[in-house]
Design a protein that fits this description.
Number of domains: 1
Largest sheet: 7 strands, mixed
CATH class: Alpha Beta
Number of helices: 6
CATH topology: Metallo-beta-lactamase, Chain A
Oligomer: single chain
Radius of gyration: 17 Å
Shape: globular
CATH superfamily: Ribonuclease Z/Hydroxyacylglutathione hydrolase-like
Helix content: 10-25%
Structural class: alpha+beta
Number of strands: 18
């Protein structure tokens, strides 16, 4: 198993829910009062059978009008058309923006040959357009043009790949466990977005059910430690690909280079 963090950089988000690039080396948090600062890391995982993309970032382009996500996949040594599975934890914009790319004035799927795995109730929530956390135009472009497998609750997608309805960050959030011959990894989306959330126990205001999300983070961290899963942290500032250990009721996180 090979794992690549496809880092899209750092951003500030204010009450308008617009994502503005933020360079910690040159920009000051004081100039953006009331903003939340986040880091965005989709992941690419190569197994013996599949090339898997976990969530798709913001969908921003570079100066050559190239989707950043596509370029990062090429930098990892693959072609975007080689992606076989797009596994979505949930459909908030910072995780789903890269599902589509704008070409000639219209949106089209970024990974037309891949199977997209989405919780059905999360899709229904996203496409009804009632929350600004979701960009409805993305899903309108996908619905008749992408290969989508809607799943319900928890289950096994195929041997070695399971999904689990978690419902802490948003009601129909899901996490993924990959257990293959060449390695094991856990992707927690926004249920376990940063290593720091294992190191200190807290209820996050941005979670749908903060108490549940806090409990799940601990459960997932313990399982990852006990069963030797590599953890993928979508919003990590550092250590996005890490091993977790647990002893004396404390977690430690070690980055994998």
């Amino acid at each position: 198993m090979k794992i690549f963090a496809l880092g899209e950089g750092s951003y500030s988000v204010d009450s308008s829910k617009k994502f503005i690039p933020f360079d910690p080396q040159t920009d000051s948090t004081k100039d953006r009062p009331g903003s939340l600062f986040i880091h965005v890391n989709p992941f690419l995982v190569k197994t013996a059978e599949d090339l898997i993309l976990f969530d798709t970032g913001l969908g921003f382009k570079d100066t050559r009008d190239e989707l950043l996500l596509h370029q990062h996949i090429r930098n990892a040594g693959f072609d975007p058309d080689e992606v076989t599975l797009v596994l979505m934890s949930h459909l908030h914009y910072d995780h789903s923006g890269g599902l589509v790319v704008e070409r000639n004035g219209r949106l089209e799927p970024s990974f037309p040959g891949a199977l997209h795995v989405i919780q059905h109730s999360e899709w229904e929530t996203a496409i009804n357009g009632r929350s600004s956390s979701y960009h409805k135009e993305i899903f309108d472009a996908l619905k008749d043009a992408a290969n989508i497998q809607f799943v319900e609750n928890s289950g096994e997608l195929k041997p070695g790949i399971s999904y689990e309805l978690s419902g802490g960050h948003c009601p129909f959030h899901q996490v993924f466990w990959i257990n293959g011959h060449s390695g094991k990894c856990f992707y927690g989306g926004d249920e376990l977005p940063e290593p720091e959330q294992l190191l200190r126990k807290f209820i996050a205001k941005y979670d749908y059910d903060g108490r549940k999300a806090m409990r799940l983070r601990e459960e997932y961290g313990k399982k990852a430690a006990e069963e030797n899963y590599t953890c993928l942290f979508y919003h990590a500032k550092s250590n996005p690909i890490s091993k977790v250990s647990y002893s004396d009721e404390h977690f430690t996180v070690k980055e994998l280079l």
